[in-house]
Each structure stands twice: as C-alpha cells, then as structure tokens.
Design goal:
Blueprint: H1 3-7, H2 12-21, E1 27-28, H3 40-51, H4 64-78, E2 87-91, H5 92-104, E3 110-115, H6 120-127, E4 131-136, H7 147-153, E5 158-164, H8 176-189, E6 192-196, E7 222-227, E8 239-243, H9 246-249, H10 252-257, H11 265-276, H12 280-301, E9 307-308, E10 316-320, H13 328-339, E11 341-342, E12 344-345, E13 356-360, H14 365-382
Parallel strand pairs: 1-11, 3-4, 3-5, 5-6, 6-7
Antiparallel strand pairs: 2-8, 7-8, 9-10, 10-13, 12-13
Helix pairs in contact: 3-11, 4-11, 5-6, 12-14, 13-14
Bound molecules: pyridoxal-5'-phosphate (PLP).
Residues 32, 92-94, 118, 164, 168, 196, 198, 227, 229, 235, 240 line the site of pyridoxal-5'-phosphate (PLP).
C-alpha cells in the first residue's frame, strides 16, 4: 500500500458518524446538509434534460450554457466582467477545490489553512504532496481570520492561502477590511487566495456576502470554489464550479479529463435552472435556518457552562463548552452515550477547536428542541 494511502488523514466528522451508527434513536445535529428537498423547478430541469436524451459525456469544462450562466450570475453579483473562460464546472465543491489546489500547488509547496476549518481540505493537500500550515484562530477574537494572522505564518514557499467565509464549522465571516488586506497581501507576497464560498447565500440578519472576487475588479490572484450543494439543497447532485482568472482556469479541463471527465449534462441543466430560477426558493430556506439559529443560540446561552458566538452565516454553531471543564471529545462522546444526542467535537476541525463542539442546525425545529433538551440535561449532570 502506498504511503499516500497509509497517511491519508481521516475525517474526524466521518469517524463521529460511524460512532453514532452504533446507537439507536440518536438525535443528530452532526450533518452539514440541508434537510430540505431540492426545489421542484430544478428537479424538473434535470428530468427534461434526461427525457431529451442528454445522457452522454459533456465537454470537460462543462456545457457552454452552464459556464455562461455561472459567469453571468457571479459577474453581476461581484461587479466583475466574467465569461465562460473564467468558469470551470466540477463534481461538487470537493472537486472544484481539488482543481483549484491542483493549479497552484506543486509538491512541497506550502498552503495556509485556518484552524479550525473544514477537515476535507487536509486530505486534498496531502494528496498533492503539499504542506498545510495551520493559521490558528483565537476563540478570544471570535475565531475571526485576520490578514495579520496570515502574514505571520507566510513562508517563502507559500503559494496559496485557503479561506472560507461563512465558515464551516464557525459560522463566522471574514470582515471586509480583512478581506481587502488579504488581497493586498496576496499581491505583495505573490500567493493565490483560494476562497471556499459554498455558503455564500446562507447569511443572516440582512447581511450581504462579500466575495474575495468582489473586493476589487483589478485583483486577480484568486480562485473561488463554490457549489450548489448548500444554497439550493443539492448536496447529492454533486454540482460545483471554480471561478477565477482565465489563465488559472485554462489548465483545469485537461486535468478534469483524467479525474472525473465531466459533470453529467442533466445535472448541469439543473444547475442553470437553480441559478436562473426564483431567488425565493433559497430565501425560504435561509429564513428557516435563521429561525433555527436563533433557537440554538438561545438554548446554548441558557445552558449553564455553555456559550457561543452568534453565527453570521452557514448552518453551524460552534459552542463553547469550556465552562463545563470537559474537553471536546469527552463532551461529545458523553453526550452521545448519556443523552443520545450527536454533535461533532471541535477538535475534528483542528487543535484550535478544543473546548468547542459543532452543532449543525440544518435540522427541523423539533429535532433541535430535542437535542437542546439533551444538551441541557447533560450539562446539568456535569454540574
Ligand atoms: C466549507 C465546505 N466546503 C466545501 C464543502 C463541499 O461541498 P460539496 O458538497 O459541494 O462538495 C463543504 C461541505 O460540507 C463545506 O462545508
């Protein structure tokens, strides 16, 4: 067996799923997946495409209509001139990320990654033989990434910095002035900002998401990784894309040929329907997530020993359990065993997540209420 396979970092989120599967009747706030069905007009577009016989390979980069729809849509959102040469269609946000990393990192290069962050980043970086340098985020600073944090960790081999706003697992967004400072730093120190924006539409309290691509039309050291998974309740469709300068997008179709070749055409047609259909479908889901967020924040804050920062986006709350005197793993395992409530230990996202648990509120209100009752009872027991 290869060293690559032996050393591939396992996702501690998946490990928790497996632990949970050993118990019956568990209330789960573990999974980062919308509990809504994909909106009907999107499903219909896929069915129509299949009925029209669109069942063959497509161009590696995606069908021109989907690439153009993405370019039009994000061009308008970001106030930037984009066309299909700026867009690469991929199999989910995961493959979009792999392509983005692959065009900037050689073996032995460094990439900075916040800690805590989505653990899947590390598997891909490992596969490319690059080195992930963690940028620890501080709980005292509300886990907000700053350009100064990044600058302090840059090495001569740093080719890329990975950011994620709103963040999984933190629910926090990067402040506008910090994004601007990060873009300046990317220009000065010659690295590419890879920005994972899969939660760009799931933002609360009337906020608007600010993309790295929107801060300055002249800034071009960026690659935006996105997907329809979260915003349109389409996780199983595996519809993702990268948007960036044409020079960095250009090699991606060649690489795609040897990886997955292409995204099925009917899924791309569904993607066009998602981007060009009514915004109200997503808005209804976001309104529901916001109500659930309020419920979880109130429940956690009312629990002795627990606290949290209010999520600004995504559907996760990173709850501070340090007041209970328990570590993340101990708390999450104890909660599962004693109360049959499943959450993810903060350490699944990196060392800086110690003392925290991630609660996903992409679940219905009854499930959330049940879980909060279990968390309350468990915390009371810990006293
Ligand atoms: C931060 C982040 N990036 C990327 C992804 C992957 O998205 P996709 O399902 O489109 O591959 C996820 C999914 O949980 C995520 O949380």
């Amino acid at each position: 067996m290869s060293k690559l396979a032996r050393d591939y970092p396992a996702s501690a989120i998946r490990a928790m799923f497996e632990r949970v599967a050993a118990y019956d009747g568990v209330t789960k706030l573990t999974v980062g997946e919308p509990d809504f069905d994909t909106p009907e007009h999107i499903v219909e577009a896929a069915i129509a495409s299949l009925r029209a016989g669109e069942t063959r390979y497509s161009a590696n980069a995606g069908i021109p209509e989907f690439r153009s729809a993405i370019a039009r849509h994000y061009g308008e959102r970001w106030g930037r001139e984009l066309d299909e040469r700026n867009v690469m269609v991929a199999v989910g946000g995961m493959e979009a990320l792999l392509l983005a990393l692959s065009v900037v990192l050689d073996r032995g290069d460094d990439i900075l990654v916040p800690d805590p962050a989505y653990p899947n980043y590390h598997g891909q970086i490992h596969m490319l033989g690059a080195r992930a340098i963690r940028v620890p985020l501080s709980a005292a600073a509300g886990f907000r990434l700053t350009a100064a944090d990044v600058e302090a960790r840059l090495t001569p081999n740093t080719r890329a910095v990975l950011v994620n706003s709103p963040s999984n697992p933190l629910g926090v967004m990067i402040a506008e002035d910090e994004l601007r400072a990060l873009a300046r730093l990317a220009d000065e120190r010659n690295f590419v900002l890879i920005s994972d924006e899969v939660y760009d539409r799931i933002v609360y309290d009337g906020r608007r998401h600010l993309s790295v691509a929107a801060i300055d039309p002249a800034f071009d050291r960026f690659l935006i990784v996105n997907s329809l998974s979260k915003s349109f309740a389409m996780t199983g469709w595996r519809s993702g894309f990268v948007v960036g300068p044409a020079s960095l997008i250009e090699p991606m179709p060649r690489m795609q040929e040897g990886i997955t070749s292409c995204l099925p055409v009917f899924i791309q047609r569904a993607g066009i329907a998602a981007l060009e259909g009514p915004e109200s479908a997503t808005q209804r889901m976001v309104d529901a997530y916001e109500r659930r967020r309020d419920l979880v924040v109130a429940g956690i804050r009312a629990t002795p020993g627990l606290d949290c920062i209010v999520p600004e986006g995504a559907f996760y709350l990173f709850a501070d359990i340090r007041g209970t005197g328990r570590g993340s793993d101990e708390f999450a395992n104890g909660l599962l065993e004693e109360q049959r409530v499943a959450v993810i230990p903060g350490t699944a996202f990196g060392e800086s997540g110690e003392g925290f648990i991630r609660i996903s509120f992409a679940a219905n209100e009854a499930t959330i209420q049940d879980a909060l009752a279990g968390i309350g009872a468990y915390a009371a027991e810990l006293g």
